[in-house]
Specification:
Blueprint (H helix, E strand, L loop, with lengths): L14 E2 L19 H9 L1 E7 L10 H11 L2 H5 L5 E5 L5 E6 L1 H8 L4 E6 L2 E2 L6 H4 L7 H5 L7 E6 L37 E6 L17 H10 L3 E6 L2 E6 L7 E6 L1 E2 L2 E3 H14 L3 E4 L1 E2 L9 H11 L3 E5 L18 E6 L3 E9 L4 E5 L12 E5 L6 H4 L15 E5 L6 H10 L4 E5 L17 E4 L1 H13 L4 E11 L27 E4 L3 E4 L11 E4 L2 H18 L5 H10 L21 H4 L6 H4 L4 E2 L6 H8 L4 H8 L21 E5 L4 E9 L5 E8 L4 E6 L2 E4 L5 E10 L12 E9 L4 E10 L1
Parallel strand pairs: 7-11, 7-14, 8-11, 14-16, 16-17, 17-25, 20-21, 21-22, 22-23, 29-36
Antiparallel strand pairs: 1-15, 2-4, 2-5, 3-4, 6-13, 9-10, 12-13, 18-19, 18-24, 20-24, 26-27, 28-30, 30-34, 31-33, 31-35, 32-34, 35-36
This protein binds 2-acetamido-2-deoxy-beta-D-glucopyranose (5 copies).
C-alpha cells in the first residue's frame, strides 16, 4: 500500500495492506442512512466492541442462549426498540459482542458489573508463478514431498472475499476436508464450494441489504488465498510478464475464506467475528493480510482474537504493515502472532527510461506495450510550474500543464496511488510517464499495472533525469520494455514499504519476526486486466508476504502435526536466511545492509524450517506470565484471556524472558539475565556448540557453551547475561542500537536467533 500521510494518526487505522492499485477506489462511504426517519438516530449509533466476564457455563451454552444473555445486558433503550442493534456475538476468541449504541448507552453499559470494557470499533481504511522455486520448493522433493503439499491442513484467510470459480481454487483431485471441519460456504446455497475451497463466509454486514455471498469485489482476498494455497495453474501471466505455472505455497491444503473487508475498509467487529468463527470451524492456520497501528493487546482485536486462537493450537500469521521505512511503524506486534515483513524476489519486470543524451535508467512496470515507438519524444517535469500537486501528478493537477504527446516525469508520494498518477498523465494527453521514487523509497521501484506506457525508476536516477530536463535545451526521452528478467543476485531485499521495528506495544519482543516475498507478486485475480484467462494480477505489499508464510506454516503443520504454533514459528525463524542470492548480507531499499528491525530473523527458508534441529517452544500459560509482566491490569489481562486473572498470583516474567526465538534488549546501566529453553526435534544424540555474534556495546555471557542431547524432545535450558560496556569504552559513544546473534551449531543444524540491543 502506498504510504499515507495520516498513518501516525492516533486512530487505529486498519490498512488493508494492499492499497496500490485499488486505493483510488477506496473512497470513504457515507454513513448516512437511506431511511430518513431513522436517519437521526442511526447517525448517532456506533458499533461498539464489548467484552464481558465469561459466564462459567459458557461451554454448555447454546449459541442462541449466549446471544440472549448478551442481549439481556443491553441498556433498555437498546433492547426496547425492535432494531437489529446486535451486530455479532463472540464465543470462542472473545467473550462479548459487537452492538450499535449511542454514546450514552455505551456509558450506561460500561457501568454494568458483567462488562469488562466497551470501545467504539474503528472503521478501518483498507490496509505466483515464481515464488515457490525462489523459495526452494520443488515437486517431489523436501518439504513439498514431506508435507504432501500441505495435505489435510485447513488455512483460513480473513480478507476481502474470493472468486470461487478461479482454477486456483479447483477441487479436482482434492480429498474431502478432515472430519473436524465444521465450516461451510455461502455461495448459492451449497454448503461446500468444493474440496479445495471448503468454506466461504461473509461478515460484511450492510444493514440495508441481506448478507451477500462472499464474492471478492476488490481482488485482494483472491490474491492472498491463491498465494497461500492456490493449486497449480499453467500459463499464468499479466501483460505477458512473469509467465509460468502459478501455484500457492500449500497447493493441497484446504482453504476457507472469511470476508471482512470491502472497498471501504475492514471493520474490527467483523474481523473478530471471522476469527471467532474460524476457530470454531476448525482451521489450522489463520492468515490476516491486514492490521491496525500499534495498540495495547487488550485493545487490538486482531491480537486479542489471535491469542485465543493460538491457545487452541491455531497458527496465526499477519502482515507487518506497509508503513516503512520509518522506524516503529509495525502492525500486529503480539508475540503469539507471526509478523511478516516484505522482501523482493529475484524477478523484475524491466523497463528502461532512455534520455536524448544517451543515458538510460532501469526501472519497472507490469504494463509493457509492444508497440511503443523507440523515437524520442519531448520530456517534461510535471512540477515545472512549481506546484507540488502537479509534481506528484495528483488527480486534475495537470489540466493546465502542456503534456500533450510528451513523456512526463512525476514524483512518487503525496499520498496518491502510483497508478492514479499515470491516469492523470494519460487524461492530460501525456504519451508516457517516468515515475521517480521518493528519497525514502530510494532504490525500490515497484512494477505496477499502469494505464499508460510507464517506468518507475529509483530516486537517484530520477534526480539525474530531472537534471537532464533542467540542463538540456530540448529534453527528450523514450521508454523501452525488456519484459521479465529473472536472476537478481541482490534478492531478497527488504522493500521500502515493509514496516519496521522496534515493537511499540511490547519493546522487549523483536518484530517483525521474518520477511518473505511481497514485491511484484503474481497471483489469482477475480477479473482479467489483460484479457488473459484465467486472470492473474501482480501487486505488492506485506499483504502478499503474509500468505507466503501462512502457506509455509500449513506445510509445516502437515509435516509436523505434533508441533505447537510456537514451535512452527521457531522453526521458521531460527532457519531464516540472512544473506541474499549473491551470498552478501540482505540489503534494504537504500542498498545498505538491512538491520534486524527490518528483517527480524531473516528471509524464510521453508526447506530448512522443516528440519530446524531445535525449537524454542512456548507453552500457552507462558503468555499469561508475559502479559502480567507487561504491566497490564488484571482486568486488561482478563479481557485477553477471557477469564479472571490475578497477576499477583501468577509468576510474571519480563518480556525478554518469554522463550522467544529472538532477543530484544532494552539496555540500561545494569546487567540483565535471561534463560531460554531449547527442545531437541532433530536426531536424539546431538551435540550443539555456541556461536556468538556479540552486539557492539555489550558483553554477553552464555552458559553452558555446549549442549549435549541424548534423546528426541529433550529440553535444555541455557542462560544469557547481557552487560553494558561503560559508555567511554564503546567505539561509538552515541550508540543507540546494536545487533548480533546467538547460534547453536551441530554437525547438521545451525539454530540462530537474532539479538537487538537498544541503549537507554
Ligand atoms: C450498503 O449497500 C448500499 C446499497 O447497495 C451501498 O450504497 C453502501 O455503500 C453499502 N455499504 C457498505 C458499507 O457496503
Ligand atoms: C499453455 O498455452 C499453450 C498455448 O496456448 C498450450 O499449448 C499449453 O498446453 C498451455 N499449457 C498449460 C500448462 O496449460
Ligand atoms: C496547484 O494545483 C492544484 C491542482 O491544479 C490547485 O488546486 C492548487 O491551487 C495549485 N496550487 C498553487 C499553489 O498554485
Ligand atoms: C545525461 O544527463 C544527465 C543529467 O545531467 C547526466 O547525469 C548524464 O551523465 C548525461 N548522460 C550523458 C551520456 O552525457
Ligand atoms: C534492456 O534492453 C536494452 C536494449 O533495448 C538494453 O540496453 C538493456 O541492457 C536491457 N536491460 C536489462 C536490465 O535487461
Amino acid at each position: 500500500m502506498e504510504k499515507t500521510s495520516q498513518r501516525r494518526s492516533t486512530k487505529m487505522k486498519l490498512a488493508l495492506l494492499l492499497g496500490l492499485i485499488f486505493m483510488p477506489f477506496a473512497r470513504p462511504t457515507s454513513s448516512a442512512t437511506q431511511n430518513p426517519e431513522l436517519g437521526e438516530l442511526k447517525s448517532n449509533l456506533k458499533t461498539y466492541i464489548v467484552h464481558v466476564k465469561k459466564p462459567q457455563d459458557v461451554a454448555s451454552l447454546r449459541n442462541e442462549d449466549l446471544h440472549s444473555w448478551y442481549h439481556s445486558l443491553l441498556p433498555a433503550t437498546a433492547q426496547a426498540q425492535n432494531q437489529q442493534r446486535m451486530v455479532f456475538s463472540y464465543k470462542n476468541v472473545a467473550s462479548g459482542f459487537a452492538v450499535k449504541l449511542t454514546a450514552e448507552e455505551a456509558r450506561v453499559l460500561q457501568e454494568k458489573e458483567e462488562i469488562l470494557s466497551t470501545k467504539p470499533e474503528e472503521t478501518y481504511s483498507l490496509h505466483t508463478t515464481h515464488t515457490p522455486s525462489f523459495l526452494g520448493l520443488q515437486q517431489g522433493l523436501g518439504l513439498w514431498k514431506d508435507s504432501k503439499f500441505g495435505e489435510g491442513v485447513i488455512i483460513g484467510v480473513v480478507d476481502t472475499g474470493i472468486q470461487p470459480s478461479h482454477p486456483s481454487f479447483s477441487g479436482e483431485g482434492m480429498p474431502p476436508p478432515p472430519a473436524k471441519w465444521k465450516g461451510f460456504c455461502e455461495f448459492n446455497g451449497q454448503r461446500t464450494c468444493n474440496n479445495k475451497l471448503i468454506g466461504a463466509r461473509n461478515f460484511v454486514k450492510n444493514s440495508t441489504l441481506p448478507v451477500d455471498p462472499p464474492f471478492d469485489q476488490v481482488g485482494h482476498g483472491t490474491h492472498t488465498a491463491s498465494t497461500t494455497a492456490g493449486r497449480f495453474v499453467g500459463n499464468a501471466s499479466v501483460f505477458d510478464n512473469a509467465k509460468g505455472i502459478a501455484v500457492g505455497m500449500a497447493p493441497n491444503a484446504h482453504l476457507a475464506m472469511y470476508k471482512v473487508c470491502g472497498f471501504y475498509g475492514c471493520t474490527e467487529s467483523a474481523i473478530l467475528a471471522a476469527m471467532d468463527t474460524a476457530v470454531e470451524d476448525g482451521v489450522d492456520v489463520l492468515s490476516l493480510s491486514l492490521g491496525g497501528f500499534s495498540s495495547p493487546f487488550f485493545h487490538d482485536s486482531i491480537a486479542l482474537g489471535a491469542f485465543s486462537a493460538v491457545q487452541q493450537g491455531v497458527f496465526v500469521a499477519c502482515s507487518a504493515g506497509n508503513s516503512g521505512p520509518d522506524d516503529a511503524s509495525l502492525s500486529n506486534e503480539a508475540p503469539w502472532i507471526l509478523t511478516v515483513g516484505a522482501s523482493s524476489i529475484d524477478r523484475k519486470m524491466v523497463a528502461m527510461a532512455k534520455l536524448g543524451n544517451g543515458s538510460q535508467y532501469e526501472g519497472q512496470s507490469v504494463f509493457q506495450p509492444k508497440d511503443f515507438p523507440s523515437t524520442l519524444l519531448p520530456l517534461v517535469y510535471a512540477g515545472a510550474n512549481g506546484n507540488e500537486s502537479s509534481a506528484f501528478c495528483a488527480p486534475e493537477s495537470l489540466q493546465n500543464v502542456d503534456v500533450k504527446g510528451k513523456i512526463v516525469l512525476c514524483e512518487q508520494g503525496g499520498d496518491i496511488a502510483r497508478v492514479v498518477k499515470g491516469k492523470e498523465v494519460k487524461d492530460a494527453g501525456g504519451a508516457a510517464m517516468i515515475l521517480m521514487n521518493s528519497e525514502a523509497e530510494a532504490f525500490n521501484p515497484i512494477a505496477d499495472v499502469h494505464v499508460l506506457p510507464a517506468v518507475h525508476v529509483s530516486y537517484v536516477d530520477g534526480l539525474a533525469i530531472k537534471n537532464y530536463i533542467n540542463s538540456a535545451m530540448t529534453p527528450t526521452a523514450t521508454i523501452s520494455f525488456n519484459g521479465t528478467v529473472i536472476g537478481n543476485p541482490l534478492a531478497p531485499e527488504v522493500t521500502s514499504f515493509s514496516s519496521r521495528g522496534p515493537n511499540s506495544a511490547s519493546p522487549g519482543i523483536l518484530k517483525p519476526d521474518v520477511i518473505g516475498p511481497g514485491l511484484n507478486i503474481l497471483a489469482a485475480w477475480p477479473v482479467s486486466v489483460d484479457n488473459h484467462t484465467p486472470p492473474f494480477m501482480i501487486i505488492s505489499g506485506t499483504s502478499m508476504s503474509c500468505p507466503h508464510l501462512s502457506g509455509i506454516a500449513g506445510l509445516l503443520r502437515s509435516s509436523h502435526p505434533d508441533w505447537s504454533p510456537a514451535a512452527i514459528k521457531s522453526a521458521i525463524m531460527t532457519t531464516a536466511e540472512t544473506v541474499n542470492l549473491g551470498g552478501k548480507p540482505v540489503l534494504d531499499e537504500r542498498l545498505v545492509p538491512a538491520n534486524v528491525f527490518a528483517t527480524g530473523a531473516g528471509h524464510v527458508n521453508p526447506i530448512k524450517a522443516s528440519d530446524p534441529g531445535l525449537v524454542y517452544d512456548i507453552r500457552p500459560e507462558d503468555y499469561v506470565s508475559y502479559l502480567c509482566g507487561l504491566g497490564y491490569t488484571d482486568r486488561q489481562v482478563g479481557i485477553i484471556l477471557q477469564k479472571k486473572v490475578e497477576c499477583l498470583e501468577v509468576k510474571s516474567i519480563t518480556e525478554a524472558q518469554l522463550n522467544y526465538p529472538s532477543f530484544s534488549i532494552q539496555m540500561g546501566p545494569s546487567s540483565q539475565s535471561y534463560t531460554r529453553t531449547v527442545t531437541n526435534v532433530g536426531p536424539g544424540n546431538s551435540v550443539y556448540n555456541l556461536e556468538l555474534d556479540v552486539p557492539e556495546g555489550v558483553v554477553m555471557s552464555v552458559t553452558p557453551r555446549q549442549i549435549i542431547f541424548t534423546r528426541v524432545n529433550q529440553k535444555v535450558t541455557y542462560s544469557v547475561e547481557f552487560t553494558p560496556l561503560a559508555k567511554k569504552t564503546r567505539d561509538d559513544d552515541d550508540l543507540e542500537f546494536a545487533q548480533g546473534s546467538l547460534t547453536w551449531v551441530s554437525d547438521k543444524h545451525a539454530v540462530r536467533i537474532p539479538i537487538a540491543v537498544v541503549f537507554q
